[in-house]
Design goal:
Shape: elongated
Oligomer: single chain
Number of strands: 6
Strand content: 15-25%
Radius of gyration: 20 Å
Length: about 220
Amino acid sequence: MRTGFKAAAFILAVFAAACFSGCSSLKPPAEDAGKYVLTALDIICKGEYDRSKSIDGANDLLKSRETLINNAVSAFTGDSADVSAGQVAKIHDMWATAFSKCRYSLGEITETEEGYEIEVVIEPLKLLKKSADEVVGELKAEVLKDKEFLKNASEDDIAARGVDMLIERIDRDVEDPAYADPVRITVFYCELSPATYGISNGDGTKLCDALFDMSAFKEYYAK
């Protein structure tokens, strides 16, 4: 059980290591600069975007999305050799769905001499609606009630059952999502290199860091 929780507790560090790239070739008006940021987030979170709004670096952003999801899968499974290929596929789908449920919008856009300060309002998605302590207790109680399963189950069988149940719980909570209080993050849209405008990887990382509320997991591992 702790494999998945341990990874989730520190998944923000995984996000911070991923690249949020993408750019446009000319400084656009403020409205288009804001659309660029939202389109980039759409690609990262949903894997799709309005193709009528061209964005240089879209393919790089799509690769970054897959990198984020794969890193999240690897972190979730940890160094466990007991996670099956089928479970890995389920965890991948779980994270892809979680990203697709992320919620964000534009706030104020302020023009500066160098570009634009763009405020993004993010409502962090809660992967679990209850604390990890409560979820662990509920899942353990559910396993202990299955006397038939426990008769011949090995430790590995019980661990695998726990992973399956955790995936199912997160899937259930994400399908009917709950969100933490909104956070406001300001990123700087500017000329990154000659005739190339966008936001920096550092600003992209700030946005990715805010997508999920991981407080339930942090509390579990703060003990």
